[in-house]
Every structure is written in C-alpha cells, then in structure tokens.
Amino acid sequence: MGVIQEIHRISREAADANGGGRLTSVTVAVGELSAIEPALLAFAWEAITTGGPDAGSRLEVDWRPARQLCETCGEVAERAPGTWLRLCPRCDLPLRIEGGDGLDVLHVDITQEAP
Q: How far is residue 58's CA from residue 23's CA, in Å, rounded to a whole number?
C-alpha cells in the first residue's frame, strides 16, 4: 500500500500543479525486476481511490521487461518469463541484465472541475 500511496501522492501533486481537478487515469512504468505485481498495484489503486475525489480513475501499467545481454551474441531472449540465465546459451560467456528495474509515474490525466 505504501507504493500506491506514493504514486497517488505524486499524481495528486501533478494535478494540483496544473490547476487541480479529478484524476481520470495515471500511467506508471513497472519494471520486471521492481518486485511490483501489476495486478496487485491496480487493486491497491482502486482501494485507495474508492470513496475519494479520484474514485473511478484508472491506473494503467506500462510493463518494462528486463533484457539479458551477451557481450558477444547480443540480446539473449531464450528464457522463460521470470527466469534468468547466468551464461549465454550460445557462447557460455556471462550475461548482464539491463533495464526492467524502474517504477515511474509516466503520465497523469485530469478532468478540470467546472466552476
């Protein structure tokens, strides 16, 4: 709940800095290695906004996968989701992992309240 509270706080600050209004949707980037489950994040968003001024707003998740890279062979995609190889299956060199570790608020949509 702490993560979603922070996402909501950041989104509210963005809305307030742009004239206020009700949040209609918030888009977040969630990396595969961030230890954040998108379905649970969406559930927590609904729980935190229900009954408040942002009730009915949507949380949209932009899933960001991590990539395994071999210095010799390039990107190595041969892995089951959620598993990681230590060595390249083609040349046996160590692999490095890039990306997939972020959690960022990308976009906030608001509806201006009528005067």
A: 8
Tens of pLDDT, residue by residue over 57-87, are: 999 999 998 888 999 999 887 777 777 778 8
Residues 56 and 23: their CA atoms lie apart, in Å, by 9
Flag whether the pTM goes above 0.85: no
Q: How far apart are CA 81 and CA 73, in angstroms?
A: 20
* Full set of structural domains in the chain with CATH: 1-65+100-115 (3.30.2320.50), 66-99 (no CATH)
Query: 72 is written with which tokens?
Result: 């010799």
Tell me how far apart the alpha carbons of residues 101 and 115 are, in angstroms, rounded to a whole number: 42
List strand residue ranges (DSSP E) for 12-102, in order: 22-31, 58-64, 67-70, 74-75, 95-98
